[in-house]
Amino acid sequence: MICVANQKGGVGKTTTCVNVATVLSLAGHRVAVVDLDPQGNASTGLGIDHRSLDCSVYDLLAGEASLAEVAVTTPAGLDCLPATPDLSGAEVELVDTPAREFKLAEALGEASPYDVVLVDCPPSLGLLTINALVAATDLLIPVQCEYYALEAVARLLDNADRARRSLNPTLRVAGFVLTMFDRRTRLAVQVADEVRRHFGDLVFDAVVPRSVRLSEAPSFGQPAVTLDPTARGSVAYRAVAAELAARFGLSEVPAQERDREQYRRASIAVGTQVAGRGYGVIAPEPEGIDDAWPRDAGSAPGRDRAMTGQPRTASPATGTTT
């Protein structure tokens, strides 16, 4: 179970969660996305209208619904545990509840049908995020390539360390994903260098560039990786998902073992033109595709190894495979 968190808003948490989950699902893995943000952006980005829901993550935390009742299957074949605005009241209601930090862990105890569960956290360090840190085995941190992002990462790691010491001793950092990278600005390159200098192999080699497709995909109710698979952002997130799968030892499921209905729905989502504008149609590979891998944006141990396909090694400090 992977918690995607950063208390700074607008750094790409939801975009990372939705697109990585979709890539893993299309590779044949059983994936679930838990939308723990009252804004419900992950639910919307996966094509779920929260106004039509009978129950949501709020009901799951309150113990009024089971995992099977809350889960909604999306066109990409993955399950989403959607959020509604009701979730905003959960933090207040849980304050006086015994073992309040363990409500999500208890509710997801039956999540064994899934190979991967990704939790999209709200942009805060409140009780909902604490519940995610307690329930998760790994923490994935999107880092926007701007100065304030560095301060936010320091605070998040401090809170994650507290959660590990007192509530969840198995929690570890799965890695850092650099997002919204613009190689034209010196600041973005400097931030990327600084993050790699501090965290080394924990930083993913693939870097997510700024992309219009990533920004507009939620308005069509699709992840960018299915809306426009050849967009720079989509290519970058496929690379991020591949690195994540390698770190967790997830091999691609053979085609004959995949759910045929899942891929039928996904192919429809990819091939459909939306509102007559042609989105979702597979186009030729765009120019500047190398922006997803800015080799001149700093170096870290393991970058060349990942590019040449040589095996990664385990990090003795964290136990993660890098």
Under the CATH scheme, which class? Alpha Beta
- What structural category characterises the helix and strand content? alpha/beta
Described by the principal axes of the CA atoms, the overall outline is: globular
* Low-pLDDT residue intervals, each spanning 5 or more residues: 255-322
Structural write-up:
Strand 6 (138-144), helix 8 and strand 7 form a beta-alpha-beta unit. The protein has helices at 13-26, 41-45, 57-61, 67-70, 90-94, 103-107, 127-135, 147-166, 186-199, 212-216, 224-227, 232-248, 260-271, 303-308; strands at 2-4, 31-35, 72-73, 79-81, 116-120, 138-144, 172-179. The chain is α/β, with parallel strands linked by helices and 322 residues long. The protein contains 14 helices and seven strands. Residues 255-322 have low confidence and may be disordered. Strands 3-4-2-5-1-6-7 form a seven-stranded mixed β-sheet, sandwiched between helices. 39% of the residues lie in helices and 10% in strands.
